[in-house]
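Final report, closing paragraph on structural work. Over the funding period we assembled a curated collection of sequence-structure pairs, and we close with a single example.
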Amino acid sequence: MIYISVADTSITPAKQKLITKSTTLGMGHVGKQLVCNATSAITITIPAKTFPDFTEIEVFNANGGSVTFAAAAGVTIITENENTAPEVSSKGKSACLKLMTVLGANTWSIQGV
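Its predicted structure, as stored:
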């Protein structure tokens, strides 16, 4: 897994997407670094839809509001700590979402939470 720092000069604005409020993931987020910049809580919902195999989306918390991941009906989220409501709660922290198609459709692994 490769984590990309916001300070990394290889990150261009085209590879980043600013998130300032709760959102549902879509194809426009695939391959992007989502920079969450809000002082209040943000929820990122993972929908039950077809994403390309091996989809990866990085989420970076750029401010003080927590970033929580929610699974839509039919979606499974797996974390290394078995969190039922995984979140990136601290400024400067990041997480990587990976679509684990080998485990079944709509199964996502979230690392770093």
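The chain has one domain: 13-111. The radius of gyration is 13 Å. We thank the funder for supporting this effort.
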